[in-house]
Design goal:
Length: 148
């Protein structure tokens, strides 16, 4: 009986030693398989699952990514926010005025905005992305220059 208990204790110790050796050998093998120098990964394309590909709102009807999204500021402090729902929000901080204008992105540098002009109907305006600023060309008016 006593001999059985001693051999059981030896078996437990042997198992611990064998586990340590196997773990050490595995770590050394894994380390030897790692490359000496790492390169940055190249992403050639990204595939979205079907539900993600159809539920995004970052693209307009023509599947153009919207580079205008976000808040832009005019020189006088007026904030213009291009929202992902196709609305342009104008907020003047000195006066609590809030206006919404529909817009659509035509390509990666151009959007078309519809302003209501003096009750005479819609005026088609163009917003152009130039570097880090947006230039809104309103007919019969000064150009509006916005920066992020």
């Amino acid at each position: 009986m006593k001999k059985n208990a001693e051999s059981s204790c030896e078996n437990v110790e042997r198992r611990k030693v064998v586990k340590s050796i196997v773990g050490g050998v595995t770590a050394v093998t894994a380390y030897s398989l790692l490359p000496a120098h790492w390169n940055s990964p190249l992403v050639e394309s990204v595939f979205l699952p079907a539900h993600a590909a159809t539920s995004g709102s970052q693209k307009n009807k023509e599947n153009i990514i919207n580079p205008f999204l976000g808040v832009w500021t005019e020189e006088d402090g007026t904030k213009w926010t291009f929202k992902d729902d196709g609305m342009l929000e104008e907020r003047n901080m000195s006066e609590p005025v809030l206006n919404y204008y529909p817009y659509v992105v035509l390509d990666s540098n151009t959007a078309e905005i519809w302003f209501l002009a003096d009750g005479n109907g819609n005026v088609d305006s163009t917003a152009t992305l130039k570097g880090s600023s947006v230039i809104i060309d309103v007919p019969n008016s000064e150009k509006i220059i916005l920066v992020k």
